[in-house]
Design brief:
The structure holds three protein chains of three kinds. Chain A contains two helices and six strands. Chain A has helices spanning 11-18, 77-88, and strands spanning 2-5, 24-33, 38-47, 54-62, 66-67, 91-92. By secondary structure, chain B is an alpha+beta fold. Chain B is 48% helix and 14% strand. Chain B has a three-stranded antiparallel beta sheet. The longest helix of chain B is centred in the N-terminal third of the chain and has 29 residues, at 92-120. By secondary structure, chain C is of the alpha/beta class. Chain C is built from five helices and nine strands; from the N terminus they run αβαβββαβαββαββ. In chain C, β1, α2 (22-31) and β2 (43-45) form a beta-alpha-beta unit. Chain C starts with a helix and ends in a 15-residue tail after the last strand. The chains are: A alpha/beta, B alpha+beta, C alpha/beta. Chains in contact: A-B, A-C, B-C. Chain B binds chain C through residues 12-16, 18-20, 40-46, 48-49, 53, 61-62, 65-69, 71, 112, 127-129, 131-132, 134-135, 138, 147-150, 356, 358, and chain C through 15-26, 28-29, 31-34, 44-48, 58-59, 61-64, 67, 71, 92-94, 96-100, 117-118, 120-121.
């Protein structure tokens, strides 16, 4: 597992230059709530037919920040982005709410669960 | 030609669906143009409960309830992640027993999927036949673990029950039976006229699209994509017990069925190898400490790759448990396959994906 | 016993209201050859309008609330609701999770509760057979001729046509 730090501004360029669709398998987008209202957004990739080679791009964001979409580079990222929007209440370019949550359920359940 | 389209919904409650999911198809005549899916019917909030309600040593049994079909893969992935963080080394025997159950689970899950595909093609007798034979595997699971479905067999540090020689004998016997029956299905799936009519050339996914939409599991392997997490991890000795990746080229429903049949054969072989060559030793090592740091674990569930990301902070409560389930990341590929197919084929295509919505929505 | 079941072959409707699939595949297994629930004349349908027994699995998630009530109202009378599995009885392991209502009986009346995680097919058969009894009872009750109102009686100084006179401002639970 290798972690590469990026910023929200350059994450699109980084992923675009790195991602080759028949070499790297896109796993998912993950969010981890850190202290002081910081959200760590992770884009996780693994290599096809390699032994346990996982690369994580991560960026620190505030909840109010606009998180850029990578759906035009990786078409299957769209569903992970919708989950990120629902679970953390952030805004991701071109992704709408309501994959899992209803109007009257707890909004952004994972953002405030830090003890 | 008029450009008029009609919207046909399927779900959330439908005879062809085992689980609640809603698809909205926009059709022009019979052809599907766009697909809209709603997968959140079974969202329960397990990820949050893992970090607020339960302590780390109990979560293995909670995450098993994400999905009843691949329960073992869920608890295994979580447990391996925690063992990585704790630095616990488990015995070789426990490792083999874990693979044994993992593969038994795969056999019964694939059989369920195959029977369900037959049912959706209108072949009720085959559905009953495969479901009847599936009970042979369920019997073994019940003997080995004490429960038929939610078997809470794996705990941090090893497994909960040992394999006695009587059970081993029964496993050998039943697996032999299943093997013979599964060979019979192959004949049925390749040569039966009504099944071929429903399955061959329908719902195809090309290799290029499989790469682009990050298809996983039997869906990808049916298109010829060499992706199987059992080939890419080293926490458990899969290659030692005779794992061989199965691939197919056609990518249609028939190819997916054949992949599942091949995997059943391969899994039976792995199980037999394990039962015959099980080493002596303890099945449980007591873990020490509290999880600290982050770990990412992947496993091959019956439907594809399952990923667990666990982050701990040296207390009993974890900071984050991320569950990436196979069906969840296959949804873009599913939607892609539907476009251009006939509406009448939807139940058969959907059943061939073997979707697990409880996994998807967590 | 054979006579009793020959009268009616009830059809079941199954809905997953957020369960883990474990109970759902056990329902399928109960219908399949080894356990063979179909020998009681039971058949699984996808159509609520033709069903008599409603099998619900799972704690009710927020998004499936409306569907359950909708399906329940679409089933013609008499109907029997069977809650399959621990989580549809009480919420089970999902109790108090944020997107879950604990148990089916918050929304619709339940006749038979089947506990277990996951329930075994034997228990499902027992539960459905119990449901058949209740169904028969309900059918009989529906067929029984009844008067809309009783004779007017005077009890404790109150004249009423009800069996138990309506009292205002008194705790009913004592009776």
């Amino acid at each position: 597992m290798r972690k590469i730090e990026v910023t929200l501004e350059n994450v699109r360029e980084e992923i675009q230059s790195f991602y080759e669709y028949n070499k790297w398998h896109f796993l998912t987008i993950n969010g981890v709530a850190l202290a002081d209202n910081i959200l760590e957004v992770q884009w996780i990739f693994s290599k096809y037919e390699a032994m346990d080679e996982v690369i994580i791009f991560f960026a620190h964001a505030k909840y109010a920040d606009l998180i850029p979409s990578v759906a035009d580079i990786i078409p299957s990222a769209i569903i992970s982005q919708r989950e990120l929007v629902d679970m953390f209440g952030v805004v991701v370019e071109g992704s709408e709410k309501g994959l899992y949550l209803d109007e009257d359920s707890l909004q952004a359940p994972l953002s405030g669960c830090r003890i | 030609m008029s450009k008029k389209t009609i919207n046909i919904p399927i779900g959330s409650q439908h005879i062809a669906l085992l689980e609640p999911v809603r698809f909205k198809f926009e059709c022009e005549n019979e052809k599907i143009i766009t697909v809209d899916s709603d997968v959140g019917f079974v969202h329960r909030g397990i990820e949050r409960a893992c970090t607020t309600k339960f302590k780390f040593d109990g979560i293995g049994y909670v995450v098993a309830r994400v999905c009843g079909l691949c329960a073992i893969t869920h608890s295994l992935s979580y447990t391996v992640a925690i063992e990585k963080l704790l630095g616990t080394e488990i015995s070789v025997k426990a490792k083999y027993l874990r693979i044994l159950l993992l593969e038994l689970d795969r056999i019964h899950s694939h059989m369920l999927c195959l029977s369900h595909t037959c049912e959706s093609a209108g072949f009720e007798a085959m559905f009953m036949r495969i479901m009847g034979d599936r009970e042979l595997v369920m019997e073994i699971q019940e003997l080995l673990t004490g429960n038929r479905i939610q078997f809470d067999y794996i705990s941090i540090g090893g497994v909960n029950r040992d394999l006695s020689s009587e059970i081993a004998q029964k496993i050998r016997q039943n697996l032999y039976e299943v093997k013979q029956r599964a060979l019979g299905y192959r004949e049925e799936f390749t040569n039966n006229w009504s099944l071929s009519l429903k399955f061959k050339g329908i719902g195809a996914l090309s290799l290029d699209d499989a790469y682009r939409f990050n298809a996983i599991g039997p869906l990808a392997r049916a298109s010829g994509l060499h992706v199987d997490v059992r080939n890419e991890i080293n926490y458990l000795p899969f290659s030692e017990v005779g794992f061989v990746m199965q691939t197919h080229k056609a990518g249609d429903i028939n190819a997916r069925n054949l992949i599942r049949l091949d995997e059943i054969q391969n899994s039976i072989k792995m199980c037999e190898n394990i039962v015959n060559g099980l080493p002596e030793g303890d099945i449980f090592t007591k873990p020490k400490g509290k999880p600290n740091g982050e770990a990412l674990v992947r496993f091959e569930a019956p439907r594809g790759e399952l990923m667990y990301y666990v982050k701990g902070n040296a207390t009993a409560m974890l900071e984050r448990v991320r569950i990436k389930t196979p069906t969840f990341s296959s949804i873009p590929a599913f939607s892609h396959i539907f476009v251009g197919e006939d509406y009448a084929d939807v139940p058969a295509i959907l059943a061939s994906f073997d979707p697990c919505l409880s996994c998807t929505a967590k | 016993m054979y006579e009793k079941y020959r009268k009616k072959s009830p059809w079941i409707l199954h809905y997953n209201a957020g369960s883990c699939n474990g109970c759902d595949i056990e329902i399928l297994a109960a219908l399949a050859p080894k356990y063979d629930l179909e020998r009681f004349g039971v058949i699984n349908t996808g159509n609520p309008k033709q069903s008599d027994i409603f099998l619900i699995t799972g704690p009710v998630t927020l998004r499936s609330r409306e569907r359950i009530v909708e399906l329940y109202t679409q089933i013609p009378e008499p109907k029997v609701v069977v809650a399959v599995g621990s989580c549809s009885c009480t919420g089970g392991v999902f109790r108090d999770m944020y997107n879950v209502e604990d148990g089916v009986d918050r929304y619709i009346p339940v006749d038979v509760y089947i506990p277990g995680c996951a329930v075994s097919p034997e228990l499902i058969i027992d539960g459905v057979v119990k449901g058949l009894d209740i169904l028969e009872q309900k059918t009989k009750e529906m067929e029984k001729p009844f008067k809309l109102f009783q004779e007017a009686t005077t009890k404790d100084g109150i004249t009423s046509r009800r069996e138990t006179p309506l009292r205002v401002g008194e705790d009913n639970e004592k009776n």
